[in-house]
Amino acid sequence: MNKKAELFLTFGKIGLFTFGGGYAMIPLIQKEVVENKKWMSNDDLLDLVAIAESTPGPIAVNAATFIGNKVAGFFGAACATCGVVLPSFLIIVIISYVFEAFKELKAVKYAFWGIRAGVLALILNALWTLFRQAKKDVISIAIMLLSFLAVVIFGVNAIIVIVSAALLGIVSSRIRRDEK
Amino acid sequence: MTFLHLFLTFFKIGLFTFGGGYAMLPLIGEEVAAHQWISSRELIDFIAVSESTPGPFAVNISTFIGRVTAGILGSFCATLGVVLPSFLVILVISKFYEKFRDSRLVKGAMTGLRPAVIGLIASALVSLGLEIFMPEGSAFDSVIDLIPLAIFLAMSVFSFLKKNPILVIVMSALIGVACGYGFGL
């Protein structure tokens, strides 16, 4: 089979069978891309995770573009990315019509009344997982608190918070290096 | 114009989201409120749907908001917008990715970005929580106002013990329906 078609189908499968996106996708990528297709090694995959973490955007898209490009250049990257996006796109378009058709039903309203509270619990859980894995030195904790307070109390734009945090990280790691 | 607006807004969101998924919520919340595309309650509904359907969370939520705001072409513009920054950045970086991976500048920036993302997600949690627990400022005048809080606490404990987002959403929906009919809301 053509490499590009293969990339499209493989990433279509990965997009279709991952729930929650992001890191949930890594085991599936490992199985399909490393074990089945042998497009990259496990070490490459670790590199990929590190790069996906430190570049903007959805991890799934980062991974698809990276692997597609490695296997078959620019068009390979385009095919893999389209593959990983297309299932979600189609499913959500269909669901959005169903959602609009049924959202005025009493039972659906009640269901979403409950679901909204449940979603908060999911966000709290994700937050806890991230916090548990995070470095907890003084600077990190200070950045967490500052960005939280900046948005909640002072209504600072999230982009400004992100850019300042990146600069702060660069400056503080340079200072730490100079101290050594 | 809406199409271009959707594309540019989601391009910006894609460009400034690190760590994927929920890290995108504060940005989406700000943008969606500024453009009045959907209410923050609808946003939470979309988060629930995006969580329980396959594929990248960011793609799901962009498609959803785009579709409801401006039809299928709107969903296409929003999704293309959110995907394009990652796509372009990775294409550039993969040319010299070992340099990028070992760069002190990138590592330094990440030591600031990682904790900031945690702070941002916490801020999204607070603003969505205020919206859900105190709709229109009515803070707990009746027992019914306490139900969402009870669901939140129960589901927090559950998802702490067993990580299964879809089960959390299904159970919350069932409790919502049972309480809705039970209390004759």
If you had to describe this structure to a student in words, what would you say it looks like?
- The complex is a heterodimer of chains A (180) and B (185).
- Helices cover 82% and strands 0% of the residues of chain A.
- By secondary structure, chain A is an all-alpha fold.
- Chain A has three domains: 3-102, no CATH class; 103-133; 135-180, no CATH class.
- The mean pLDDT of chain A is 90.
- By secondary structure, chain B is mostly helical.
- The relative contact order of chain B is 0.11.
- The mean pLDDT of chain B is 88.
In short:
The complex is a heterodimer of chains A (180) and B (185). With 180 residues, chain A is mainly alpha-helical.
Succession of helices and strands of chain A: HHHHHHH
Rg result of chain A: 20 Å
SS summary, helix count of chain A? 7
Q: How far do the termini of chain A sit from each other? A: 55 Å
Rounded mean pLDDT score of chain B? 88
Write the layout of secondary structure elements.
The complex is a heterodimer of chains A (180) and B (185).
Chain A: H1 3-17, H2 26-36, H3 42-53, H4 59-102, H5 106-133, H6 138-152, H7 158-179
Helix pairs in contact in A: 1-2, 1-4, 3-4, 6-7
Chain B: H1 2-15, H2 25-35, H3 40-51, H4 57-93, H5 97-101, H6 104-133, H7 146-161, H8 165-182
Helix pairs in contact in B: 1-4, 3-4, 7-8
